[in-house]
Write a structure and sequence with these properties.
Layout (H helix, E strand, L loop, with lengths): L2 H15 L2 H21 L5 H24 L3 H15 L8 H15 L7 H12 L5 H14 L1
Helix pairs in contact: 1-2, 2-3, 2-4, 3-4, 5-6, 5-7, 6-7
Length: about 150
């Protein structure tokens, strides 16, 4: 089932069960998806939907960092609960070893030898890891691998 449909069904379930965290989180995710669809002028494919969910998770992680600085434990807990809800709609995440292996194969495939080739590697790699690993983590692994070359 498509992720957007799963989110819509989960929202109905959250409304029925009065699960406030899930209801709030799913509504925000669906609002972001609908906004992107309006900007796009049509419905989004599965890859774009997953990237929006990852973006929502990234926003909440940044909010946790800011809440830690402000010593706001309540905000930290709220954002962590929302991240848990959002992560349940992403595919199984790649382990660091799996990501490393995938990066090595793409680096060899495109013939990258220096950090200047990072763009080529990322262009070939991102469609393969979409939804399975955050972009910042992917770029960090690629950068480390190309610096070793």
């Amino acid at each position: 089932m498509e992720t957007k449909s799963r989110l819509e069904n989960a929202l109905k379930d959250a409304l029925r069960s009065k699960d406030e965290v899930s209801k709030r989180t799913i509504r925000m995710a669906l609002a972001s998806i609908k906004l992107a669809e309006i900007d796009n002028g049509g419905s989004l494919d599965e890859t774009a939907t997953l990237s929006i969910i990852q973006k929502e998770i990234k926003i909440r992680r940044e909010a946790i960092d800011e809440a830690k600085i402000a010593s706001r434990q309540d905000l930290i807990e709220d954002n962590e609960a929302e991240i848990t809800v959002l992560e349940s709609y992403l595919p199984q995440q790649l382990t660091p070893a799996e990501l490393q292996s995938l990066v090595q194969s793409v680096v060899a495939e495109v013939g990258a030898v220096s950090p200047a080739d990072m763009g080529k590697v990322m262009k070939a790699l991102m469609p393969r890891v979409q939804g399975k690993a955050p972009g910042d983590q992917v770029s960090q692994v690629v950068r480390q691998m190309l610096q070793k070359s």
